[in-house]
Description:
Layout: H1 3-20, H2 26-35, H3 44-48, H4 51-63, H5 72-94, E1 104-105, E2 108-109, E3 116-118, E4 121-123, H6 125-133, H7 165-177, E5 184-185, E6 189-192, H8 195-198, H9 200-203, H10 210-217, E7 228-231
Parallel strand pairs: 6-7
Antiparallel strand pairs: 1-2, 3-4, 5-6
Helix pairs in contact: 5-6
Amino acid sequence: MNRSILIILIVFTANISLASTKADHSKWTTLLQKYVTANGVVDYKGYKKDMELFDQYLIELREHAPQKDWTGAEKKAFYINAYNAYTIKFILAKYPLSSPKDASFSGKDIWNFRMVQIGPQQYSLQQVEDNILRKMDDPRIHFAINCGAKSCPKLLNEAYESDKLNAQLEKVTKKFIQDSAQNQLSEKKVKISKIFEWYAEDFNKNGETVITFLNKYSGDLTIKDDAKIEYLEYNWALNE
Length: 240
């Protein structure tokens, strides 16, 4: 075979292989099911005993960064999992502690510590959330990513997967909205999580409001459009 043709075939095959390679989140599901309860309580001590498998998953994330041919669901699931995995990783690095806010690295908190390794790029958790996930224009991501505190949406004890992502996002969003510890809803007044205050622009867009969003997941209750809105105090205690 002509040498130049052979080289072209090798490069072409390599590019196909790179483009089709997707991250395997099975290790993350294994860890979550071992160390996170159905109610989102995290066993950090248990995680510390299984760091080899944990680090293998972080390598999986590093070596299988999203590519242009990935679907939107594949990218969204990947970055949600990456956010949650690195949150736990950063907490474990300073554990034991009483709050994720107590952890710091070179004077930076866990959300601004730029050590989330995805391919050749390093991000902070804040960058993953603001520059990647929020730009996907799906406010449900706020109930899938977990900051390690009790007032954060509960950590799902399985990895997010593209083929069931919509169902997973619907599940965690409904669970959070209907959790009376997170949101107290009534027809004329609501006391809701500060997440809705911090990220108000994500819920008040495309002709919809925070009330519109809440009504999608509030079950049999219909909240009036002019209902009074208050925000609950955020509990930053560690979710263990």
